[in-house]
Design a protein that fits this description.
It contains 16 helices and 17 strands. The protein is of the alpha/beta class. A nine-stranded mixed β-sheet has the order 9-10-8-7-6-5-4-1-11, sandwiched between helices. Strands 12-13-14 form a three-stranded antiparallel β-sheet, with no helix packed on it. Strands 15-17-16 form a three-stranded antiparallel β-sheet. It starts with 12 loop residues before the first strand and ends with a helix.
Length: about 375
């Protein structure tokens, strides 16, 4: 631990790059994504805006190198491999990469996107996250997805042939009218493909979505409980270690970018609607960028629309809200190094959650109990008491 005269080491740094367009908006999606349909994608103009946005944020880097980069959206794989490669080169030249920097790109499994996988790999992407969501045609149609089950399977093969040895499959369960058998069949299909990582999470109805306006019929609580219990057991038996609420991996291929979020690291947020978190000598700050793509493309006075300093009393909540998603929890050393707080200022909260049965602890770390993992939302609600 640093002494009183030694400044704290800054947290690890990542970068999130937001590409806000997709072919069409899915009815469950509440991300800042905009269907482009048949309109022309403003790729070059957006690349220029991203470069200017990054330039504005460079003083916040403070000589750190990037541990990870994540291209999210929207659908980043709508952009050409050359465009993504140019962005990677720009980040390398202006910020620089730590050893083994993880570079993830979200991709849809449609034929148009999959055709670019080899180019992405050649130009620096190290990890693909393929948004499969389901392998059942009926469910894909209800979700508004534009790919088929066959295309999803084929896209995975194309990614392997392109040389990707770190692939995540995004899969949802609790879909409209989905039975337990259907959800487990989807999961088994994903396991059979053999990705290094599976993100498996329950569909939730979010405000400002089509599903919120016209809710579909979702499975009952008993079916959802059965899906969760049997799915976790299936993943475990298949060699996928659960390390976060909705994330499973083989060979310890944890998503390094997401681990930085959950361990309260820093990250640049570049792109329309992106959010960043950066630490300096004056505290921990959050930044947000202008949201509408048209406004972002025409920004004349900078891209930030919001900047706040996180008060000390809020840092404990933010840290725990992230760390408690991790099955292994976090260490007290990380807590003290990445907040402006001391262990004494969180001890009572940790002990109370232990008494309630949500957490366990020893002298060096804390982690969610079996109850804490199952009832994470209840545990987080207790943080606000």
């Amino acid at each position: 631990m640093p002494t009183m005269t030694e400044p704290k080491a800054l947290p690890p740094l990542s970068a999130y790059i937001h590409i806000p367009w997709c072919v069409k908006k899915c009815p469950y999606c509440d991300f800042n994504s905009h269907g482009i349909e048949d309109a022309e994608l403003p790729e070059l103009d957006y690349l220029y805006a991203l470069a200017m946005d990054l330039e504005d944020d460079l003083p916040l880097v403070q000589d750190r190198k990037l541990e990870s980069i994540f291209f999210g959206g929207g659908t980043p794989s709508l952009f050409s491999d050359t465009a993504i490669g140019n962005l990677i080169t720009l980040l390398d030249k202006t910020v620089g990469f730590a050893d083994n920097c993880e570079i993830t790109l979200e991709a849809n499994p449609g034929t148009f996107e999959a055709a670019k996988f080899a180019g992405y790999k050649e130009l620096g992407v190290t990890r693909l996250s393929i948004g499969v969501q389901s392998f059942e045609t009926e469910k894909l149609e209800k979700l508004g997805r534009i790919h088929s089950a066959d295309e999803a399977i084929r896209a995975f093969g194309i990614a392997r042939d392109a040389g990707f040895d770190n692939i995540n499959l995004d899969l949802m369960h609790g879909l409209p009218n989905q039975s337990s058998d259907q959800a487990l069949a989807d999961l088994q299909q994903a396991i059979d493909l053999g990705p290094e990582h599976i993100s498996w999470y329950e569909l939730t109805i979010e405000p400002n979505t089509e599903y919120f306006k016209r809710p579909p019929r979702l499975p009952s609580e008993s079916i959802l409980a059965s899906i969760n219990d049997e799915g976790h057991a299936l993943l475990d038996a298949s060699g996928y270690k659960r390390y976060e609420t909705s994330a499973y991996c083989r060979d310890d291929k944890r998503a390094r970018h997401n681990m930085n979020y959950w361990q309260y690291g820093d990250y640049l947020g570049i792109g329309a609607g992106a959010h960043g978190k950066l630490t300096d000598a004056n505290g921990i700050h959050r930044f947000s960028k202008t949201r509408a793509p048209t406004h972002y493309l025409n920004a004349r006075n900078g891209f930030r629309i919001g900047e706040t300093t996180i008060e000390k009393e809020d840092q404990a909540f933010e840290f725990l809200m992230n760390a408690l998603r991790l099955i292994d929890g976090s260490s007290f050393e990380i807590f003290e190094s990445r907040t402006d707080l001391s262990l004494e200022e969180i001890n009572k909260t940790i002990d109370r959650l232990c008494t309630l049965g949500y957490l366990e602890r020893d002298t060096e770390r804390f982690w969610p109990s079996t109850k804490g993992v199952r009832y994470l939302n209840n545990c987080l609600m207790e943080l606000m008491v």
